[in-house]
Amino acid sequence: MSSQLDPEILAAITAEARQCFLDEDAPEYLQMLNSGFNDRANPNFTALLRAAHSLKGGAGLASLTSLQHLAHKLEDVLVGLQQSQIGEIELAWALVEKSIDEVGYIISQARTVDDAIANPELIVALESLVGSNSAPEEVTDSEFGSDNHDLIHSTLTEELENSFVTIEELEIDAPAAIVQPLLSGFVDECAFLAETLDLLWLGEAVAPIVEVLETTEIAEALLVTKEIISYLRTEIGEYLNNLKLVANEVESQPEIDRDLVVNTLNQDLEAMCQAIADLGMDTPEAVINEAIAGFADECIFLSETLALPWLSLAVQPVEGILADCDPLEALLTVQELVGEIRQRRDYYLEDSTDPEAEAIHEVDELEESSDEDEVFFDFPENHEDAELSTVMFAPPALSEDQIVAKVVEAQKPAGSNQVRISLEKLEGMANNVEELILSQSRINRQQKILNQANRRLRSLTRQFEPIREQIQDLYNRLAVGSIDRSSTDSNEDNDFDALEMDRYTELHTSLQSFQELMLQIQETRTDIDFVDRELSEDLEQSEKNLDILYAEVTNSRLVPFDILAKRFIPQIHVLGQRFDKLVDLEIEGKNTLVDQILLEQLQTPLTHLLNNAFDHGIESKYDRIAANKPETATITLTAQLQNNQLVITIQDDGGGINPEKVYHRAVERGICPPAKSIKDFSPEEIVNWIFEPDFSTAAQVSDISGRGMGLDIVLNLIRQLRGQLYVTTDVGLGTIFTISLPINLSLRSLLLVQLQNRLLAIPHTSILEILPYQELYFTNQSKEYINWQEQTIPLAAASNLFPCPRKPLQLSQGKVAIVLETAFEPLAILVDAIEGEEKLIIKPFDDTVPVPDYIIGCTVLGTGEVIPVILPQGIAKGAISSVSVKNSTVTIANTVSTVLIAEDSVATRKMLDKILTAAGYQVLVCRDGQEALDQIEQYQGRIDLIVSDVEMPRLNGFELLAKVRTKPAFKNTPIVMATSRTGDRHRQKAKRLGATDYLGKPVQPQQLIDTVTSLLAKKRNDS
After folding, report:
1. Rounded to an integer, what distance in angstroms lies between the CA atom of residue 127 and that of residue 847?
2. Rounded to 10 degrees, what is the CA torsion of 558, 561, 564, 565?
3. For the chain, what is the radius of gyration of the CA atoms?
4. Contact criterion met (CB below 8 Å) for 120 and 144
5. Which residues have C-beta within 8 Å of that of residue 913, sequence separation ≥ 6?
6. 982 — pLDDT class (breaks 50, 70, 90)
7. pLDDT in tens, 29-66
8. Nearest Cα to 590, choosing from 566, 554, 567?
9. What is the C-alpha to C-alpha distance for residues 196 and 191, in angstroms, rounded to an integer?
10. What is the pLDDT of residues 455-486, one digit of tens each?
């Protein structure tokens, strides 16, 4: 059992707990606060305090520090009001009202932003009302303006000084129970101030106290703290003096000389830009990295010195470029930035003299506001005539007329003009449309249920028709029979005989009511039938509109492949000049539409492959002439769409890959065992060794080859995109690299198939044929291959495609065979039944759980069931053996500990459940103590550990603890109390009742895992 929780799993659990708190717990606590406040004449302090206390704990659990701090201060004020410790009653209730409103605002904000901050002025007001020494929340200049300095001054000299005095008044022999919490609280307070007021030196100064508390006696920790306090007083004095000096300097700072700015930009900045522009492709990598880093530092220095924010903004991406790209790619990109910096400099200098300055500035802002994902760089169609200096990416300078023309164009009325929308917003729109499609699917399923019920009701009303006629006949017969009985009834009115007036009994009334009820049922059925038809038509139209909307949103993210491909033309041309090779890059499929996000992710792998084709594939011009080849080589970059796959090929007409050379290099690198000869492997297997890490066949190291880096990186990048990379070669004729990637389209037509009690979805376009099991023609006795359209293809049970330890389906159990199109050859799988075909949204998996490349995600049915989606094109050729029909060995842990959780908070209960489940435990969750007690009775002897809250309805934690300890079967069962009531009285009572451990809320996930693991291990050792 793992005692360490994966950070990614922990982050996911924390995010889910935050969402659960915001959706379920927080609204309830807010309602309790509002209800309690509305009755100020007779306030329910119990409900108010409970709501504030629960809100404080839940906010801490959800990592909403600011809300936690506000709830804490609100709770303090409510306690002061309850105990009549506050004299200004009206002011206190006014602050309570503002606090409740602020709580509602933060809860609303926290749904859309990660860091929702409470109003610092409100928190300061609450603190001053109750005399608290807690540190204020983060204060920014934008919120307080010049008062920010005053707030920092008062916080450091008054509030923090009070904490200093409290610590200094402690005696060395003071009890540890008193000193320990005070020192810990002092550290927390200083750390909070350091973070919120941006005082890093304060946090660093108190950091040693934490280590001293953990490793030494409490008396020594107190002495160390007092020494640090003495040091802090000196630091605070110096900091406040410096703060005052800086403020004075800012007020008295003269305006920057305009001539100095102009000369610096035209001379110093231009010299730096030209230095970067003069760097060539043959410059050593170390020199390139140093030059780029120095260029960025100088630009930032000029930006800060001359107050030029646009300059620091322009070079901001440089740090990421150096980290993510190799030196040559970084150089090309930064040279591209040089052109942009020059253009922005010209705009800036013209702003002060040009009468059109304001309009031009608007153009500049328009360019800056465009999303990074929308920025592409255009190259001349005729690259041979293009100027290919080292500053090849610099945009052309604009003349004054061109600038004014752009201004005029930008100021035209909107009309039919296009607007720019960032990819992030487009993706958000696509996600919303996908959610609407999921809702549409659920409504369609509900409509089908309504339709079935309507047909059933129609059938029942038809069955009622004969019964209604029989009832009518019975009614008439009873009416006739009443005539005979009337003659013998002496009490009847004899003014009229039976032929002159009908006489009715209670039975007549009942039959008449029954007939009327049947007529009402028929009328209601007719109404339902009408609604069913109208709803069906409306849903059909809604589905068409959603499909159109989804297609339009999706198409808005598509751009031509040429947008990316033409970037490589100058790259190949420069490499040709540098290494004396004549190479043309031809692009086919320029107008193939590709998702823009996917296109950007392909730039790095395509760069590596093109460099590889140029260096390894293309021979020197002398070798080409000797081989009777054209002196000018050709690399062809092609993009096309095939069966919902984007297929990109890089083909060269070079010398190809020599398998013998690869084999000998693989033996040297230890990839191939030396005992095996080259004849033991197929040429395809040998060639694929070039994707091994640190593999290279280059005779010597150069700037673009020989370092053993590249193709293994390319393969990993393609796999991260759920794609495949293949290589085919012909010695002397050339090599082809093929990239196959799934198109990022979420809405697909999926075939739903059944595997016993499971469902599986397969894209309709990947299915070649569906065959009954009886019509299969097996080619061997083991029934692992079938003959399909005069070719032998493998047959597998579909359940073996799942990477989970479940027993695969036997061949005899399959009833239907589905022939799938894969990346290499057709594959047949066996399923139990075909459920139907639906157009559904595919949601991709995250990286929490690794899945095979052929499982591209999951889809949600109208019933809410989540089922996996298989993309057959992602099944690798070597993986067929792993999905064969042979039974696999399944290993499942024999013993899994069971933990029972008793917790009334929904968010806390779900978080504890997620944490313990992720750690490998079986979890039983209960909403209160009584439900937990019922579960304990039911699972007697099968519960290994109990985690319980203290404050719960029906049966609280202490009562549950007492009742459990009376049961012999649970005498030695570990029971952990997890509560926000961390006082000594609560701890002592829990200990008296038999609690094994006591945890404070919010519970830290790793602390919970460590506690549960150690208690269960101790229990096993004792038994």
Report:
1. 44
2. 180
3. 39
4. yes
5. 901, 923, 925
6. confident
7. 888 888 777 776 777 777 788 788 778 777 776 778 88
8. 566
9. 9
10. 888 877 777 777 777 777 777 776 655 544 54
